[in-house]
Design brief:
The protein has about 280 residues and is an alpha+beta fold. It folds into 2 domains: about 1-135 and about 255-270, 4'-phosphopantetheinyl transferase domain (Ribosomal Protein L22, Chain A); about 140-245, Alpha-Beta Complex (Ribosomal Protein L22, Chain A). Helix content is about 35%, strand content about 20%. It has 10 helices and 10 strands. The strands form 3 sheets. Strands 4-5-1-10 form a 4-stranded mixed beta sheet. Strand 2 and strand 3 form a beta hairpin. Helix 7 (about 160-165) runs antiparallel to helix 8. The longest helix is centred in the first third of the chain and has 22 residues, at about 55-80. The radius of gyration is 19 Å and the shape is globular. The two termini are about 30 Å apart.
Amino acid sequence: MAQFGSTDTSVSPISDLGGVVHVWIISLTEVSSADLEALAKCLSASERGKLQRLSRPAGRQAFLVSRGALRHVLGGYLQQPPKALDFTYGPQGKPALKLKHPTAQHQNDSPWCSLEFNLSHSGDWVVIALCQGRSIGVDIELIRLLSQLPSLCQRCLTPAETATVQGLEPTQANLRFLQYWTGKEAYLKALGLGLTASMTSVELAIPPGAIALQPAPITPEPLHDQGWHIYQWQPSPEYIAAIAVQTSALTTHPQIQLYQTTARQLIHSDDPLSIGFPAPECPT
């Protein structure tokens, strides 16, 4: 199993999460048939229906592991069985936890009301980002050759961003495009818009040089002035990831803690919050 950080066994429960952003990196491939069967048992009827409609085996496994792992991670924070969780979806499909206490007098007392999360998967990994009381979005992409790069730039990038990509040699051009893509997608997902909104409406000024190994800020000034922060990093040489999170303090960066585990560990642990492999904290 590829390691993204050093080992620790402590994760704060939701009551202590505070201003910390937790990011879980989970393998999509290190699962047995028994693990897949266990994950399937915790899905809802609608999730099982969607799973059955997927035709490609790789797509089915990615969906099953992603959704099952999400339920186990959230269940650990909320101290609820994974199968007991219920989700609601925004107009563009952004998931949120359905309140256990839907009446107004109980909403502010429920941790379900304040826990925000987002999920993304690509290649061999799924990333789950979560925090309390703030909007969050995440994206991860396998670094690969993009055969339609010119048309992708035209559709997704601003003129300044396109000029930056076109001025690079092919390998670096692909990487720079994916930097723009992950940052913008994380931000649009945090807003609940996803790819229904134009990526050209956001312009990122990504600093030159190597991509950080831990989440590093790349937020442009207009978004920063609205309280948004975008962070980007390479969890491994083959992948690039980004997080977008909104904070009330415009000049304060939230603490970000990365965790790595497998679906198997989540399934077989009595306490899923004790099995991650945290990496060093993001500098603030």
